[in-house]
Every structure is written in C-alpha cells, then in structure tokens.
C-alpha cells in the first residue's frame, strides 16, 4: 500500500527551550485569522520498521471545509474537499473514493486545517518547547476513533510551516510547507471535482 493513501483511511506536530504558555492561544488566533492557504508541500512517512517514503505536491485550503491536496511524485493522487464531500482520485487505478466531509475532518492534514476554528473541541491542546525556530502545539484527539493518536503543528508568525502526525499503525507523517501564500483568493475551481469518465466511483 502506498504511504500517501493513509490520508483518507487515515495528513501534523524537544529541546531545552521552555514552551510559552500562550503558544496555544497564538495558534488559535492564527487559525482564526486564516481564510485561505496555498503552497507546496513535502511529505515523509516513516513506518514502524523505520522505512521511509517521500512525496511532494501542491495544496490549497479555503476555510471552512474546502481543500485540495495534489500529490505529484512519486505517484499522482488528488484529494478535494468541496465543503460537502471529500473526493480521492487515483489516476493509476481510475478510481474515485467519496466520503462525507464531516466524516473526514480528522482524516488528513488538509481536512484538519480547513475545518472550523474550534480545534479544541476535538483535541486536547498543549504547548511544546520551541524547536527549529518554530513554535509547536500538540493536539491529542478527545475521541478514541480518530485516525491520529497525536498531531503536532509547527508555526511561525502567521504561517503554519510543519505538521507531524502519529497514527494508530505506528507510522509518523511529517509535512513541510513552503512557498506559502495566505488569505489570497484562490480559483474556486480548485475546490470542485468531477469524476473522470469511466472512473469507478466508491462512496463510503
């Protein structure tokens, strides 16, 4: 199974410096002011045995509930949240998987970041020590049926720079964001998806 497929069955968060008590508040304020976010990403998945796989692509988020996560290498895959449903297209298999967005909010980094501003309703949040010149917040799901055991979000100023996720399969997913543009006006077509002709569509 490709590591990148973990995102829908399933995309994120020490050194000696002390954690700032207001780091959680800072992250909440950042998310509260975040309307859109676009850029490139590099994702590294480390499985239980230490084997790694790296992929990269582009992303776009429009809160609440809309996102586009496009893997380009090593395998193409597209995930689109249109505000109602989440669509996963695998061109190699010519298959599309559809899931209601309220069932997918905790299943991927894009879905998590594109949700509402009340992250604390679904996660217990705490500040971590600063590292790599970033402030860090750890989020642990309040419900036991979440795909992730914990998520760590690294941010600086008005930008989310990294995410680290530990899932129930013993895998760690690290995502680094770059070429970030926030609160622009992305093309609305980015958040629409029509299954290709002849594709096998599976609704979950």
From TrEMBL:
Residues 1-21 form the signal peptide. GO terms for cellular component: periplasmic space. It is found in: Periplasm. Keywords: Chaperone, Lipoprotein, Periplasm, Protein transport, Signal, Transport. It comes from the Bacteria. GO terms for biological process: lipoprotein localization to outer membrane; lipoprotein transport. Its main location: periplasm. The keyword Signal applies. InterPro entries: LolA/LolB/LppX, OM_lipoprot_carrier_LolA-like, OM_lipoprot_carrier_LolA_Pbac. Monomer. Belongs to the LolA family. Participates in the translocation of lipoproteins from the inner membrane to the outer membrane. Only forms a complex with a lipoprotein if the residue after the N-terminal Cys is not an aspartate (The Asp acts as a targeting signal to indicate that the lipoprotein should stay in the inner membrane). This is Outer-membrane lipoprotein carrier protein.
């Amino acid at each position: 199974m490709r590591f990148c497929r973990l995102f829908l069955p399933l995309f994120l968060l020490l050194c000696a410096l002390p954690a700032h008590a207001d780091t959680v508040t800072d992250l909440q304020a950042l998310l509260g002011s975040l309307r859109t976010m676009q850029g490139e990403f590099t994702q590294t998945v480390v499985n239980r045995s230490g084997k790694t796989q790296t992929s990269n692509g582009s992303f776009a988020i429009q809160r609440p509930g809309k996102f586009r996560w496009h893997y380009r290498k090593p395998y193409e895959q597209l995930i689109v949240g249109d505000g109602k449903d989440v669509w996963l297209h695998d061109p190699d298999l010519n298959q599309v998987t559809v899931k209601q967005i309220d069932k997918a909010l905790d299943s991927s980094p894009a879905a998590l970041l594109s949700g509402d501003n009340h992250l604390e309703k679904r996660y217990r949040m705490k500040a971590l020590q600063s590292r790599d010149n970033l402030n860090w917040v750890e989020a642990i799901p309040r419900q036991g049926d979440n795909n992730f055991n914990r998520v760590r979000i690294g941010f600086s100023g008005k930008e989310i720079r990294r995410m680290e996720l530990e899932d129930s399969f013993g895998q760690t997913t690290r995502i680094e964001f770059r070429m970030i543009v926030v609160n622009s006006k992305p093309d609305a077509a980015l958040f629409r998806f029509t299954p290709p002709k002849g594709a096998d569509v599976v609704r979950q």
